[in-house]
Fold this protein.
Amino acid sequence: MSENVGDRFDRLPATEDERTVEGRPTRRAVLEWFEERFDIGPSVFEAYSFWERGSGKIWAFRGEVESPIEIQGLGMTALRTRGEHWKPTLEAVQRFGGHATKNCLALTDDQAARFFAGEDLEPDWDGDWGYLIVTREIAGEQEPLGVGLYTYGELQSMVPKGRQREL
């Protein structure tokens, strides 16, 4: 078996049979996770390849390059997979979250402002616990704002400190 290399991108294997690094997720597993958690179908990611850099940071890249490749960045970070629960990134949710029909929590204007400021909220939500796509209605459509972690009646803002804003 190969191992993760922290300064190199390796394309995710399509299936478990093609895996060469123990514990590395497969493209199929990533697609199934997005579909099961958020009902985002695999066709949304058809033009994208998935890559791992180091351990558990999954990147999405629209295009083709040789694997492995030693560069600093490739596309956008999409998912963190090494913890107990996989976590989508803010960038992935803002890019692909508009396709989600499941585990999306709509906020009011006041709640959205508090969410972007990094505050925890106690929204009225009777859905699944875990990572949610937080949305707000903009021009008549629900638009993804970011990622929240919902447990025990509380929504924790997962907006990175450097991207939090007072609105």
Q: What stands out?
A: The first strand starts at residue 9 and ends at 11.
